[in-house]
Write a structure and sequence with these properties.
This protein has 344 residues and is mostly helical. Helices cover 79% and strands 2% of the residues. It contains 13 helices and two strands, in the order H-H-E-H-H-H-H-E-H-H-H-H-H-H-H. It has helices at residues 2-36, 43-71, 77-110, 115-118, 121-139, 149-158, 171-174, 177-188, 190-216, 220-259, 267-291, 293-307, 313-331, and strands spanning 74-76, 166-168. It has a two-stranded antiparallel ribbon. The chain starts with a helix and ends in a 13-residue tail after the last helix. It is a multi-pass membrane protein. It holds the Pfam family 7tm_1. Belongs to the G-protein coupled receptor 1 family.
């Protein structure tokens, strides 16, 4: 039996390490691309960088701590609680970054003429800071008292254990399932996901309306702009869909655990749900590479220039073209919208 458990843990650790090895370099590449390419340096991509930072932290911090929790070493209660909390912080940070991205895309199509005056770099930075502060407060709530300390103390007293409060460090031993379901899921996960769904539906509706208007009036500039916005919105909506697909199974299992204590959830389902949540941190760079051309060209440039140490004239030309387009957008950002004032 011990060998079977050990083999299972080894397989779990191997999969987690593989996820980290994909997630960390991929998201560092995203951050590097935004820093390198000025065409990617706007509010939307600032929020994407915040999301990438959270995903890097999943690979470098959460996955190693998850491996520790899986092994279940003996440690003091609050030490174990500190090991369990980072995943809560980073999950909330990712959700709020996705919400900020959705709001940003909505503003780009709802108020294109005023967008650059409303969404300034300073306001974007303030929004990112607020997202992280809220994430810290939500994720550290168990440290403030909403945890299983009293429950574990009663168990320890019943078992007449040690004087020092030491437990086997498991997530469910320290984190209250009421906190996970009522507070974390029902307040800070599900409502933002539903709100983002509504926002993206409205974004697609606005873009479709504008495209129909511009097609009928034979105006190519607004059509080009809204066509580009539609592509980016689809890509970012895909990121949201993958996040929901990755996280909802684990929250569903938490609900089953809370509302049906007698129900036995197969451990393999729990592990699959955990792998999905951690694996989500590796998905976004792949989506960006395949769906957003600015990211794809910058990734290729970084690969050739810094990884392969090649100096390619075509790569340099790509960079100059991207920079030229970005500078043109900065100089005349509202050309496509000259005839939208009546319709907005």
């Amino acid at each position: 039996m011990a060998q079977s458990v050990s083999a299972f843990q080894a397989a779990y650790i191997t999969i987690e390490v593989l996820i980290a090895l994909v997630s960390v370099p991929g998201n560092i590449l995203v951050i590097w691309a935004v820093k390198k390419n000025q065409a990617l340096q706007d509010a939307t991509f600032s929020f994407i960088v915040s999301l990438a930072v959270a995903d890097v932290a999943v690979g470098t911090l959460v996955i190693p701590l998850a491996i520790v929790i899986n092994i279940g070493p003996q440690m003091e209660f609050y030490t174990c609680l500190m090991v369990a909390c980072p995943v809560l912080i980073l999950t909330e940070s990712s959700i709020l970054a996705l919400l900020a991205i959705a709001v940003d895309r909505y503003l780009r199509v709802k108020i294109p003429l005023r967008y650059k005056s409303v969404v300034t770099p300073r306001r974007a930075a303030a929004a990112i800071a607020c997202c992280w502060i809220i994430s810290l407060l939500v994720g550290l709530t168990p440290m403030f008292g909403w945890n299983n300390l009293n429950k574990m103390r009663r168990t320890q007293e019943a078992n007449a254990s040690h004087t020092a409060f030491v437990i086997g460090c498991k997530f469910e031993n320290v984190i209250s399932m009421e906190y996970m379901v009522y507070f974390n899921f029902f307040v800070w996960v599900l409502p933002p996901l539903l709100l983002m769904l509504i926002i993206y539906l409205e974004v697609f509706n606005l873009i479709r309306k504008q495209l129909d208007k511009k097609v009928s009036s034979n105006s190519s500039d607004p059509q080009k702009y809204y066509g580009k916005e539609l592509k980016i919105a689809k890509s970012l909506a895909l990121v949201l869909f993958l996040f929901a697909l990755s996280w909802l199974p684990l929250h569903t299992l938490n609900c089953i655990t809370l509302f049906c204590p007698s129900c036995q959830t197969p451990s393999i389902l729990t592990y699959i749900a955990i792998f999905l949540t951690h694996g989500n941190s590796a998905m976004n760079p792949i989506v960006y590479a395949f769906r957003i051309q600015k990211f794809r060209t910058t990734f290729l440039q970084i690969w050739h220039q810094y990884i392969c140490c090649e100096t390619d004239k075509n790569t340099n030309n790509l960079d100059n073209t991207e920079l030229g387009n970005w500078q043109l957008e900065r100089v005349i950002p509202d050309v496509p919208y000259l005839d939208l004032q009546k319709s907005l």
